[in-house]
Write a structure and sequence with these properties.
Blueprint (H helix, E strand, L loop, with lengths): L13 E2 L2 E2 L1 H12 L11 H10 L3 H10 L2 H11 L5 H13 L5 H14 L9 H8 L4
Antiparallel strand pairs: 1-2
Helix pairs in contact: 1-3, 6-7
Length: about 140
C-alpha cells in the first residue's frame, strides 16, 4: 500500500464490527513498506483501536503486512470475542466522535479545515475532517 500516491480507507469503514480498522491496515502495510508518506502509524485513533484489541502496533503491522484481509478479520474477531456489544458501540463512538482536545490540536484542526473549506462549520470530529480532506465528503 503506497500512501504517497493514494489515500487509506475511510475511518468510518468497518472490519469485524470495528470502525477504523481497515484504515489502520492500510497505514500499517504502508509503514512496513516505507510508503506511509505524511500519514502516522500508529496515530492516536490507531492507538485506541490497538488498546481495544490489546495488541501493540508492531504486532498489528506484522499481521497486516503478511496476512490477507479475511484472515486479519478472523484474527480481530478472535481478539474481541469477549467484548460486549456495548464495548463495540463505545469504541466506535469514541473513534467517530473524537475531536481536538488541546489548544494545539484545535488550532491544527481549524487550520486544516480552513484550508479545505472555510464555510464548513458542520465538521467537528477527526473522522469527518479526514473524510473531507481525502475527498469523501
Amino acid at each position: 500500500m503506497n500512501l504517497t500516491s493514494k489515500y487509506p480507507r475511510s475511518p468510518r469503514q468497518r472490519l469485524a464490527g470495528l470502525v477504523h480498522v481497515p484504515r489502520m491496515i492500510d497505514k500499517a502495510r504502508a509503514c512496513k513498506e516505507n510508503t506511509l508518506g505524511e500519514y502516522i502509524y500508529p496515530c492516536p485513533l490507531d492507538k485506541q483501536i490497538l488498546e481495544f484489541l490489546n495488541v501493540d502496533s508492531d504486532a498489528f503491522m506484522d499481521k497486516a503486512s503478511t496476512l490477507p484481509e479475511a484472515t486479519i478479520e478472523e484474527w480481530v474477531e478472535y481478539l474481541v470475542q469477549s467484548k460486549s456489544r456495548r464495548d463495540f458501540e463505545k469504541i466506535n463512538e469514541s473513534i467517530l466522535n473524537a475531536s481536538p482536545d488541546t489548544d494545539d490540536a484545535k488550532r491544527k484542526f481549524k487550520d486544516i479545515l480552513n484550508s479545505i473549506d472555510r464555510n464548513r462549520f458542520d465538521i467537528t470530529s477527526w473522522a469527518e475532517l479526514i473524510d473531507l480532506e481525502e475527498g469523501r465528503m
